[in-house]
Amino acid sequence: MHSSPFTSTIVTLAKATAATLSASNAALAATAKANSNAKLRAFREVVKSRVSARRFEPNCTVPACVWRDVLRLTLTSPSGFNLQPTHIILLRSPAIKSTLSKNAMLGFGNQYRTVDASAIAVFCADLEPTKRIDRIFEMERQSGMREDGYLAVLRVAASFLTGESNTLSNNGGRGSSTHLSSFFKQTFTKALSPVQPMPTMENVESWSYKNAGIMAQMYTLAATAHGLSTCMMEGFDARRAKEILRIPDRYGIPLMVATGYDFGAPPVAHADLEEDDDTTNEPDTQQLKRTPRLETNELFFGDSFGEPLDLFWTINLL
Q1: Rounded to an integer, what distance in angstroms lies between the CA atom of residue 125 and that of residue 80?
Q2: Collapsing DSSP states into helix, strand and coil, what is residue 59?
Q3: Dihedral of alpha carbons 298, 299, 304, 310, sign
């Protein structure tokens, strides 16, 4: 049986189309692999270049656009139930840094790093995170990111698992009722654990400090990507630091991160950033579904708790 010229033409076209599609798919796969390799190399470079700075170049100012990008990247940090229980005070005032160094920092190294660094990022962990639930619940509901089932249990689950008692407001935020509530929850989960998986109960300070640590790591990597040097510090008198920085009793200070330029190192050539640049709007990230975030002026403060951070005044006025 002989095929007609028409049939032969169809077969030829089909083979050509298949070859074209195969070549196109191969090209797309090669491009995707190249992008993956580039991202991995970039991340490895950032991670491997991060070291704790022993000393900072004094009297150096970090460009405002760099600070803004670092903080915006930090804002993408995950948190338990998306409660975002961590605030950052970006301390840049030489006078307040000096006061903090002399009166709250422990050890000579931390003291001179506090003075010389361009800024000290003070991480403040909310010890009453259930007060944030209503605000976060409404943001989640409006975003449409969560299923109804998740929203239905958010308030109860967050209150139970953050280690904070619902009786906090009736006991000044602390006290025996909190410990009694934690005891009952620990007893309940321990009793059921042999039967079914149960969460490990932790007190509210552990929960909030853990979330602050996650955010601090994101901040540190973002700063490193911009060529800045960092040093995480936990050697300080938190009581004195809270008094100097006017931090309410509701918050604890798990750590601070000194940030600036490494002493004696070559000048850093910062990447080009537009004044209103937002890295979360880049093509590679636009398709990602992101849970809602609190505004920058709610999470980031100036030289004391609650003081507006002027970095974002400028951008809002442009």
Answers
A1: 13
A2: coil
A3: negative
